[in-house]
Amino acid sequence: MSTNPLIKIEDLHTFFYSKAKQAFIRAVDGISMEVPRGKTLGIVGESGSGKSITMMSVLGLISAGPGVIRGKVIYDNGRIKKNLLQGLDDFVDLQEHDGTIMQVDKDLYGWQQHSEQLMKNIRGNEISIIFQNPKAAFNPFTVIGEQIAEMVLLHTRINDPVAAKAKALYWLERVKMDAPEVRYYNYPGALSGGMAQRAMVAMALASEPALLIADEPTTGLDATIQAKVLQLLAEIKADLGITIMIISHDIGVISSLSDYVAVMYGGTVLEYGSAKDVLSTAYEKKHPYAKALLASIPGLENIEKNGARLKAIKGEVLDTIRVVEGCKFASRCDCMTDSVKHKCNTQQPPLEDIGGGHKIRCWLYQ
Length: 366
Ligand SMILES: Nc1ncnc2c1ncn2[C@@H]1O[C@H](COP(=O)(O)OP(=O)(O)OP(=O)(O)O)[C@@H](O)[C@H]1O
Ligand SMILES: [Mg+2]
Fold this sequence. Notes:
The chain is of the alpha/beta class. The chain is built from 13 helices and 14 strands. The protein is 33% helix and 24% strand.
């Protein structure tokens, strides 16, 4: 079997028009990362850093017109290999001046048709998603068991309703729902937050996807339930060997599940590597932003027990209308030395491998 990563994102850009700002926002601006098969990639970063938009771009779910997605998302499961963004560019004409997007002409209908075509047999089949708000994932008027059984019928080889029901019960059991036989007939509204989250995981797994994307799967749950959902995801990962992309602004959540970690800031990746390298406070080479994120954390053992929120870092997140000259983090960085200062303010550093696949976008280490 091929050892290529299951998902490889290359130079992804996602732009939106913001009515509030009366300008195009560069929400994701040149992201590259990959998720090896059977591994978990954690994406961490402050609110607004582009985590959700990255995930939605991967799934072709950017419908806000005129949203623009550029770059490559190579999906390769050994049988199917394709760029999930192939040809989308043909439906867009984008005019840029001096790093600012001035105008976008988009054939929205053509784009959507093409995107649906690209995602056919991928979204739902190969890639499932779990969101922060499980209840939004379910139809409120149908019992959860039937919704899970429907996923089985739609996306697996099972086409007999009785077998699909049995499979749905199997998934409810698998995610450790209490009394699956009873829960099968519950409407989404009757479930507690933790139970609804388990039901959504069951529904996501019911299509037997190769990749599970989880966007803030535990945000809003209380600490005990959060720990249980994390444990469930860890078990699923170990038992099913599924590949996971998990997004959170909580380093505790990221560290408890991830094999690889990407630290996002202002629509770019500032640090990427094995969780061991990126999350280690002992590592002397760290992006100053990642260093600041980790500074408030007492130690990885404690994170797993208590969870840890990102420390507030002084300064504002940059607006992302214009391509900035220099490093995006420069205005908030307190590690800048005199020898690199000029470069930091005038040239964006590349995301450079500092050894063993550990990449950092910082002039201090170039
Ligand atoms: N539909 C949209 N139209 C315009 N701008 C958008 C849209 N969706 C997101 N954005 C902008 O894109 C940027 C990235 O948003 P994104 O939701 O990816 O952040 P995030 O890292 O997931 O944050 P959070 O931790 O709060 O979920 C933000 O500046 C946001 O305001
Ligand atoms: Mg988000």
